[in-house]
Amino acid sequence: MSLTHTFGLLTNPDQAWEAIRRESESVTRLYTGHVLLLALIPALAGFIGTSQIGWQIGDGPVTRLSVSSAMSLSVLFYAAMLAGIFILGKFIDFFAATYDAVDRTPRGVTMAAYTATPIFLIGVIAVYPNIWVNMAAGLVAIAYAVYLLYEGLPILMKIPEDRGFMFATAVLTVGLVMFVALLAISVVIWSMGIGPIYVS
Q1: Of 34, 48, 155, 160, which has the most beta carbons under 10 Å away?
Q2: Residue 106 has pLDDT above 60, yes or no
Q3: How far from chain centre, in Å, is Cα 113?
Q4: E strands along 6-162, which residues?
Q5: Interior angle at CA 151, CA 21 and CA 142, nearest 5
Q6: Which residues does residue 95 pair with via DSSP β-bridges, in sequence order?
Q7: How far apart are CA 133 and CA 92, in angstroms?
Q8: Backbone φ and ψ of 64, nearest 5°
């Protein structure tokens, strides 16, 4: 059912969120049927794009990462996505009581996973590592993910729309803080020697 929900979120988000709410997947089933598979898209595309195709700045030479370096970074990126979904989901569950969620069933990880769906799917563009193309596609995916968050949170958590707006804003803020923290962790990891190794 997870892939059906994925299609539904792109075509009819309200109905998809209602169906997701009724189904009430466990975290294990959610990860095995949705997150583990879709998170592979940007990780594999990034590996292929950076190690096989490469990128070019102006008229300069094509730059690539070594296969081992690209593999290490792709695995770390994949692990970060899996962990990020889970952590953000736990924050959503923690905030639920504050925003008067009627149903106290933990649905935070479900919310985080399905909200990230457009970002996972657009990750296929990383196979062509052009900064402007990737940024434009990324902005579209992030904008739609934010729309899914604001649209789906009141439905999934059963709270009034006005409180849902505040709740979604709090979740978005936590997500941005997590993104900044990830950048900081990346710098630390690179300083330990796991950074990119470039080849011509």
Answers
A1: 34
A2: yes
A3: 7
A4: 64-65
A5: 110
A6: none
A7: 32
A8: -130, 165
Q: Give the 3-state secondary structure of residue 105.
A: coil
For the segment 138-176, what is each residue's pLDDT rounded down to a tens digit? 999 999 999 999 999 999 988 888 888 999 999 999 999
pTM above 0.85, yes or no: yes
Under 8 Å between Cβ of 149 and 13: no
Residue with tokens 């996973």: 113
SS3 of residue 65 by DSSP: strand
Long-range contacts of 139-144 (CB under 8 A, 24+ apart): 142/118, 144/118
Q: How many residues make up the chain in this entry?
A: 200
Residue 60 CB neighbour total at 10 angstroms:
8
Among 25-29, 135-139, 190-194, the range scoring the smallest mean pLDDT is: 190-194
pLDDT tier, 188 (very low <50, low <70, confident <90, very high otherwise): confident
Helix, strand, coil shares of the chain, percent, nearest 5, are 80, 5, 20
Q: Which two tokens stand for residue 27?
A: 């975290």
What is the four-CA torsion angle of 167, 169, 175, 176, rounded to 10 degrees?
A: -160
